[in-house]
UniProtKB/TrEMBL annotation:
Highest taxon of source: Archaea
Coiled coil: none
Protein name: Predicted arabinose efflux permease, MFS family
PANTHER family xrefs: FOSMIDOMYCIN RESISTANCE PROTEIN
Keywords on record: Membrane, Transmembrane, Transmembrane helix
Length: 442
């Protein structure tokens, strides 16, 4: 009996220990998830900075990523092909990217707050001309100028956060949420607007929040202290800083941005149109307006990107950035292959996963640049990577339009699935050769 009691006691103790271990692991997992999505993780000193830049970020991406929703309307009205619309998107995003380097230089010279205010006012002014568009050529001019204005946002904002924030990785993440709010909720509002008004009125009304927030940012927004700004008074100073960035590590980072930009733009440009080809997905009723599957699922996918933004920011604080990026790129390649091979409601799940993965990149890539770029030249550093990301990456829209004009979505997603793997190879090169610069402020 004693031996039986002893055995029972041992079993009970082991069961108790196993339960304790399981409860401990469950508690840790619960705390990890809570911390992952807890906005209180942003230091109080950063909240004003992040709040204003997040609002500006939402408007910037609302401008750029609401354009795919108008493509079916423009094809019908102006009698153009998907390839021609792809070229238009390439023009817009190419100019968007081309402005990144000048905006970074201006940010280092005059302060990020000044350049961000300029972006809001300039882009808002462009949209005042939308109601007067009467041809595809006029549309191209306005869309191109919108790309120019919006292109002045990213490098100043990211350099602003990198220089001023106490927790930059988390700052990048919550700042990134602004993009997802702008490109997720914005298209839903635009869709509802299109149900009751014409596209010129709806697109032209974007001038109101841009101009309004521009005035607010100028009067009440955070100020760039310029404590870390570099000497960019002459062309020689600028060229000197550019030469300092021409290293194997930074060239590897540029490659990461190029290949990520190609599949980013190639996928999103025609994603609403792809979803509309899936007849099994229903339309939704939004405030009395019928919202097609391509519109509501596109918006939902982009909203899901908020989860990716937060996860990427916290993962970047906890783990080595390069390793996290490798996992994200590998998973993204698989998701793209699945989008090309599946149909029906299965696309919803895969699309949401793809959206989360796509926007996990933003804080991780920004942290990668901040890690390997001296504080004083981060405006130029971010300018360079965004120039190639949206400049060369803009070719993804033309590539997608060309493939769709001669083939299928299956081939498109199959081709695009290669680019995350090439970006992963570039991350490996950065990981093997890179180390933070001595002048990097910790």
């Amino acid at each position: 009996m004693a031996s039986v009691s002893g055995i029972e006691g041992t079993i009970n103790n082991r069961t108790l220990n196993n339960n304790c271990v399981a409860n401990t692991r469950l508690t840790r997992l619960r705390h990890t998830i809570r911390d992952l999505f807890d906005a209180r993780g942003v230091p109080a000193a950063d909240q004003r900075l992040i709040g204003y830049t997040t609002g500006a970020h939402a408007l910037d991406h609302l401008v750029i990523l609401s354009i795919p929703l108008f493509i079916p309307i423009w094809i019908a009205e102006f009698q153009v092909t998907t390839y021609e619309l792809g070229l238009l998107v390439t023009l817009m995003t190419g100019l968007y990217g081309a402005m990144a380097l000048p905006s970074g230089i201006l940010s280092d010279r005059f302060g990020a707050d000044t350049v961000i205010t300029g972006f809001l006012l300039l882009t808002g002014g462009v949209f005042l001309a939308v109601p007067f568009i009467d041809s595809f050529a006029a549309l191209a001019v306005v869309v191109a100028l919108a790309g120019v204005g919006a292109g002045f946002y990213h490098p100043p904002a990211l350099a602003f956060i990198s220089r001023e924030a106490e927790a930059p990785s988390k700052g990048f993440a919550y700042h990134g949420i602004g993009a997802n709010l702008g490109i997720g909720i914005g298209p839903l509002l635009i869709t509802a607007g299109l149900a009751v008004s014409d596209w010129r009125t709806v697109l032209g009304l974007l001038a109101v929040p841009l101009l309004g927030f521009g005035v607010l940012f100028a009067l009440r927004g955070p100020s760039d202290s310029n404590d870390h700004t570099a000497s960019t008074h002459s062309l020689g100073d600028v060229l000197s800083q550019l030469r300092a960035l021409v290293t194997p590590v930074f060239l590897g980072i540029i490659a990461v941005y190029v290949f990520a930009g190609i599949y980013y733009r190639g996928t999103l440009t025609f994603l609403p149109q792809f979803i509309d080809t899936l007849s099994s997905l229903p339309s939704l009723d939004l405030a009395g307006a019928s919202v097609g599957a391509g519109q509501w699922l596109y918006s939902l996918i982009l909203l899901t990107g908020s989860v990716g933004q937060i996860a990427g920011g916290h993962l970047g604080e906890r783990f080595e950035i390069e390793r996290v990026l490798l996992g994200v790129f590998a998973a993204t390649s698989l998701a793209l292959l699945a989008l090309g091979g599946l149909s029906g409601t299965a696309v919803i799940g895969v699309g949401l996963v793809f959206g989360a993965l796509l926007f996990t990149l933003a804080p991780l890539q920004s942290s990668l640049v901040a890690k390997h770029t001296p504080d004083a030249g981060q405006g130029i550093g971010f300018g360079l990577v965004f120039t190639v990301n949206f400049g060369i990456g803009a070719l993804g829209a033309s590539l997608a339009g060309w493939l769709l004009s001669s083939s299928s979505y299956s081939l498109l997603f199959g081709v695009l699935a290669v680019f995350p793997l090439v970006a992963a190879a570039a991350v490996l090169s950065v990981s093997k050769t890179g180390r933070p610069p001595e002048s990097h402020a910790q």
